[in-house]
C-alpha cells in the first residue's frame, strides 16, 4: 500500500481536491434546480453518498490494476547468479568480449605474432580457467539490454540478451588488456578485479532494474542494492554492443 501511495500520490491528491471542490461546485450548479429538489437533508446526503461511492469504486479498480501490474513485474524478475573469481569456463557457454577493442590493441602495438584469433585461441584451450565475470539466470526469466559496469570508471559491456538457463562470461576491457599483456610477454598481471559491479537490464515485463554488487577479497559477488523502474546510465562515448563472442 505504501508503494501504491508513493507511485500514485498525484492521482490521489487530485481526487481529494475534486471531492472537496465538488461540494461548492455542485451546490452552485444545482441551485437552479432547487425548486425541484426536496429541501430535506436526505437528497443532499444521497447525492454526495453516490459521488463518494463512485470515487471509492474508481480507487479500488485503480489499486487492483496497480497490484496486478506489480505481480506481473515480480513474476518476471530474474534471479541472477554472479561470479567474478578464477573459475572454469563451462563448455558450450559464450564468452563475450570487445573485439574492436582487442583489434585496436593489436594495431596500436604492431605485434605481428598476435592476430585477431589470439583471444579465441586463448579460450579454446581444453579445461580453460580464467578470472572473469560469469552471469547465470537461475529462475527461467530472460533479460534484455544488459549493461554491465566494472568498477567506478567507464568500463562498460552491453549484452543484447541473456536467455533463461544461459550462462555467459564477460571479458572487461581491463581483462582483455591483461590477456594481451600475458600473450605478448608471458607474464601474468591480473590484478584489476573491480570492487563493485553494477547491472542495468530490462525484464520481459518491460521493467528496468538496477543491481549493485560488491566484490570481496576472494572475488565473491554480493548483492547490496536493487532498484526498480530506473533509467539506464549514459554510456561513455565510443561504447558499443558487446556482440562478439566465443563459443567455449
UniProtKB/TrEMBL annotation:
The chain crosses the membrane at residues 12-33, 45-67. This is Uncharacterized protein. It comes from Streptococcus pantholopis. The keyword Membrane applies. Keywords: Membrane, Transmembrane, Transmembrane helix.
Amino acid at each position: 500500500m505504501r508503494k501504491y501511495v508513493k507511485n500514485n500520490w498525484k492521482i490521489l491528491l487530485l481526487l481529494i481536491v475534486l471531492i472537496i471542490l465538488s461540494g461548492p461546485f455542485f451546490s452552485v450548479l444545482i441551485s437552479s434546480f432547487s425548486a425541484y429538489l426536496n429541501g430535506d437533508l436526505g437528497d443532499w446526503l444521497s447525492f454526495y453518498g453516490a459521488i463518494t461511492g463512485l470515487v471509492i469504486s474508481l480507487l479500488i479498480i485503480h489499486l487492483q490494476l496497480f497490484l496486478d501490474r506489480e505481480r506481473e513485474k515480480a513474476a518476471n524478475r530474474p534471479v541472477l547468479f554472479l561470479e567474478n573469481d578464477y573459475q572454469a569456463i563451462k563448455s558450450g557457454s559464450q564468452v563475450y568480449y570487445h573485439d574492436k577493442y582487442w583489434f585496436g590493441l593489436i594495431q596500436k602495438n604492431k605485434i605481428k605474432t598476435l592476430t585477431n584469433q589470439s583471444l579465441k585461441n586463448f579460450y579454446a584451450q581444453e579445461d580453460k580457467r580464467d578470472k572473469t565475470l560469469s552471469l547465470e539466470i537461475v529462475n527461467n526469466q530472460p533479460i534484455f539490454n544488459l549493461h554491465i559496469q566494472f568498477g567506478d570508471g567507464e568500463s562498460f559491456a552491453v549484452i543484447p540478451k541473456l536467455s533463461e538457463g544461459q550462462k555467459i562470461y564477460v571479458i572487461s576491457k581491463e581483462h582483455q588488456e591483461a590477456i594481451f599483456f600475458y600473450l605478448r610477454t608471458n607474464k601474468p598481471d591480473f590484478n584489476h578485479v573491480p570492487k563493485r559491479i553494477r547491472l542495468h537490464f530490462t525484464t520481459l515485463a518491460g521493467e528496468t532494474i538496477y543491481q549493485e554488487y560488491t566484490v570481496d577479497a576472494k572475488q565473491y559477488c554480493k548483492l547490496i542494492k536493487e532498484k526498480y523502474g530506473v533509467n539506464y546510465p549514459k554510456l561513455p562515448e565510443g561504447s558499443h554492443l558487446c556482440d562478439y563472442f566465443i563459443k567455449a
